[in-house]
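#onboarding

Welcome to the new folks! Below is a worked example of what a typical request in this channel looks like: someone posts a single protein sequence, and someone else replies with the predicted structure as tokens. Don't worry about understanding the tokens yet, we'll cover that in week two.

Example request:
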Amino acid sequence: MTETPSLEATERAASAVAVAPRVTLDSIKARIKETYFVNAYDAVCCQAEGTEMPAVDSPLKIMTLCILVMDNGFVVIGKTAPASPENFNAELGRQFSLEDAIRQLWSLCGFELRTKLAGL
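Example response:
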């Protein structure tokens, strides 16, 4: 899995003031069973034969997807793409798409924790 520096900084700040149960970055990462990174253009070009392919200069070439499969089978997809194609960096694309996926999970795990704390 790729590093998540901005999420790690947020986690440090939150843990410094936490006084009650909370969702942590480590608790989310522990529940990730599988991680996949896909370039959107490559994913589209793997479609079945007979499908019209995007142009070679497609904006899909600068979009990175991160697919997380959780321990319970739930799937989350993070995504990222720079505004300027010249700024595309594959490693940063993996990092940012992973962080996008984890941010989605954070709210879902928060809902799950709140339900448990409410005794429901």
